[in-house]
Design a protein that fits this description.
The protein has one domain: UbiA prenyltransferase (Tetracycline Repressor, domain 2, Orthogonal Bundle), CATH 1.10.357. Helix 8 runs antiparallel to helix 9 and helix 13 packs antiparallel against helix 14. The protein has 304 residues and is mainly α. It contains 15 helices and no strands.
Length: 304
């Protein structure tokens, strides 16, 4: 152990000596890709893994499990890079994002775009380990992920674009595991888009007063005083779609239990956002990690 630590320290010292500028920026890069805030990875990962299990009708290929797990982490990090690149001029005007590395000047927009290209390249290499159909689908995933951050300037529905980006992995999971996209995959895709719009509206409620001042658009602004009702309606549709999936696939009581837990969590989110306060709204957004996990666990146990 001591020998490994010494070897690691020597390697770090050599890297620091050869690339001093890059070494100094490592903490800022970690902040850029939200290394200490993995919620985005979870929200991308759970639906994708659930789709893999359904496509395989049980435990999927281990290689695909590794590829899609790593891919979720890499592509969410890439999304953060392009998001901060797009928002470099506005993050400093929003309380929640004032300390992001581009807003503080710790990194430049060029640093962010270089990081995006690197991570997207890693993601593409991972996809190359699957099949041709999945490789073709991956171009759509990159395009939607790159497009999303700019949508808040032109439409009040950027959350819908994010929903497509966060649901694309479901389609890729089916093509990678089963080499085709069955009808049930599209139901899962639509359900996940609906869920994403709901939870990202909760997220947008945190910044609504700042977004109004700087003229950034979101569903939280579009829904206005009907925000809680719209979120609740979307969540109900999401749960109904998942119920249809379970019925179509004849999943057992474990899946129903997962949906029950998800329903209880969603009711709790409605309690959290009742006063539209930023702190509880953000807590409601974070709670969706457990919603996704509950559904995923229900799927896994249904196939045991």
């Amino acid at each position: 152990m001591e020998a490994l630590r010494e070897l690691s320290n020597k390697a770090k010292a050599r890297f620091q000596a050869r690339f001093p500028g890059l070494y100094a920026k490592i903490p800022a890069y970690a902040d850029l890709i939200r290394l200490n805030r993995p919620i985005g990875i979870y929200l991308l990962l759970w639906p994708t893994l659930a789709a893999l299990w359904i496509a395989a009708e049980g435990v999927p290929d281990i290689s695909l499990l590794i590829i899609f797990t790593l891919g979720a982490a890499v592509m969410r990090s890439a999304g953060c890079c392009i998001n901060d690149f797009a928002d470099a001029g506005i993050d400093g005007n929003v309380e929640r994002t004032q300390k992001r590395p581009l807003a503080t000047g710790a990194l430049t927009r060029r640093d962010a775009i270089n990081c995006f290209v690197l991570l997207a390249g890693i993601g593409f290499v991972l996809v190359l380990l699957t099949n041709w159909t999945t490789v073709l689908l991956s171009f759509g995933a990159i395009a939607v992920a790159a497009l999303y951050p700019f949508m808040k300037r032109y439409t009040h529905l950027p959350q819908l674009v994010l929903g497509v980006a966060y649901s694309w992995g479901i389609l890729m999971a089916f093509t990678a595991q089963a080499d085709h996209i069955p009808q049930i995959a599209y139901v899962l895709f639509v359900a996940n888009v609906i869920w994403t719009v709901a939870y990202d509206t909760e997220y947008a409620m945190v910044d609504r007063e700042f977004d109004l001042k700087i003229e950034v658009k979101s569903t939280a602004i579009l829904f206005g005083d009907m925000d809680k009702m719209m979120i609740g309606s979307l969540q109900a549709l999401f749960l109904f779609a998942l119920w249809l999936v379970g019925r179509q696939l004849e999943l057992n009581a474990w899946y129903s239990l997962g949906l029950l837990v998800a329903t209880i969590l969603i009711v709790y989110q409605q309690y959290l956002i009742k006063d539209r306060l930023p702190g509880p709204c953000f807590k409601a957004f974070l709670n969706n990690h457990w919603v996704g996990l509950a559904v995923f666990v229900g799927v896994v146990f249904s196939y045991i």
